[in-house]
Design goal:
With 429 residues, this protein is mainly β. It has one helix and 23 strands. It starts with a strand and ends with a strand.
Length: 429
């Protein structure tokens, strides 16, 4: 349950999740399959409007791995079905229905990936994935002038001459029909084992991502100016990277450099269109973006203690209709440090810290707003392997109860969670 301003602006909901996984071996290779279901029910009252939003999602992901003389081949499919049922009310009394929607999306993807040993030191790998997303939409927004049988005026209550039961759909805000998108992604990489403990790799990725229903539709708890952006195009692009890794008995270190150029970056926008439509709030394609960066990772571990460190440094920019600027909500520096120790074999004590540099606010393409401040969060935890079939963990997140902004849009800052304690018990059968 989340509150915004006052008791009338709330978001509350329930979520159920079920997953299943199976695997096996044959003379030809291995197989595995996973399936899952998610059901989410959400109610919200925001800005004087109220709605019910129910989401159901089912997935099925089988794949096989075939062993070859000098490598292997992997093939599989990704299937998912998303359904959204939405009811929007005139106000928080939830007595008059203003709009309703039923949206269903079937996403089907197939892929093949292979690896082959060219020599004892040189390996080549690559693959391709093809995806199709078919969305069936029906959204009805009633004519607001026809909703109520009576009108309140400065002369008192009078009959509404436009009243109809049921009201007519507003042709400007209602729609029905399919939206189909498809595309492909691929990768190709080369790994060179230059020495017994050192390897160098380089690779290319063709990127493809079609936005989720949460991005295309406005039913997730924040009213947008368009209930469905059917013009939202998939993100596509090319990523190039090169890296080196050195591994010893107790430690390893790696460095990776990358360059990603993305077409049709998707982001939330908010602006005044200068017409009678007023403020436009949408997720839309904002232009092309460029990311250049270096990622570092280091790990050391022994029987009783260890540490790991990851850090990234990036240069990001947006090149589109808004001009050349930093990319909103993308930090230029991030780091994560973990230190752990085992006073006895069954107990591990761990301290984890996470740093994130300042960011440009969402929707601040002209860089006029205040930056989201940088922050460092510390967490601590204890893990106890009590028996072979029972594990217990306890911990505290945001140990020092630091106040920080997790995100920000158009001057509105969203605070991160304060200090939280938890306990988990896991039984294995």
């Amino acid at each position: 349950r989340q509150a915004k301003e006052g008791v009338s602006d709330i978001v509350s909901g329930d979520e159920w999740q079920l997953t299943q996984h199976g695997e096996g071996k044959g003379t030809w290779g291995d197989w595995e399959a996973s399936a899952g279901m998610i059901k989410r029910e959400r109610e919200w009252n925001l800005d004087g409007r109220s709605a019910d939003n129910n989401l159901e999602r089912g997935t099925f992901n089988p794949r096989v791995k075939i062993d070859l003389d000098n490598g292997y081949l992997i093939g599989g499919t990704d299937l998912s079905l998303d359904q959204v049922n939405y009811t929007g009310y005139w106000d928080e009394t939830r007595e008059t229905i203003l709009s309703w929607a039923e949206i269903e999306r079937l996403t089907a993807g197939g892929y093949v990936f292979g690896l082959r040993d060219l020599t004892d030191e040189l390996k080549i790998s690559g693959g391709i994935r093809i995806e199709s997303a078919n969305t069936d939409n029906e959204h009805v927004h009633f004519e607001e002038s026809q909703l109520f049988p009576e009108l309140e005026t400065n002369r008192g209550t009078i009959p509404n001459p436009d009243y109809k039961n049921p009201p007519d759909p507003d042709p400007e805000l209602s729609f029905t029909g399919p939206v189909d998108k498809s595309g492909w992604a691929s990768e190709l990489s080369l790994l060179w084992q230059t020495a017994e403990n050192t390897s160098i790799w380089c690779g290319w990725d063709r990127v493809y991502r079609y936005p989720s229903l949460d991005e295309t539709a406005s039913y997730q708890g924040y009213p947008l100016s368009d209930p469905l952006n059917s013009d939202l195009e998939p993100e596509t692009g090319n990523n190039y990277e090169v890296g080196i890794k050195h591994i010893r008995r107790n430690w390893q270190v790696g460095v990776t450099g990358y360059y990603l150029y993305l077409n049709d970056e998707i982001s939330f926008v908010e602006y005044d269109d200068g017409n009678s439509d007023g403020v436009i709030r949408l997720n839309q394609n904002i232009g092309n973006s460029e990311r250049k960066g270096i990622e570092l990772d280091f790990m050391y571990q022994s029987d009783r203690y260890g540490t790991s460190l990851t850090a990234s440094f990036s240069d990001v920019s947006l090149d589109g209709e808004t001009g050349n600027s930093l990319l909103p909500l993308v930090p230029e520096r991030e780091a994560s440090l973990t230190v752990w120790a085992k006073p006895i074999q069954a107990i591990r004590i761990q301290v984890h810290g996470r740093y994130q540099s300042s960011q440009v606010q969402g929707n601040d393409f002209s860089l006029n707003g205040r930056l989201i401040p940088s922050y460092w969060i510390a967490n601590t935890s204890l893990f106890w392997d009590m028996t072979d079939g029972c594990d217990i963990s306890v911990g505290i997140n945001n140990l020092f109860d630091k106040t920080y902004a997790m995100s920000a849009y158009s001057g509105g800052f969203y605070p991160g969670a304060g200090r939280q304690g938890y306990m988990r018990i896991k039984f294995t059968f």
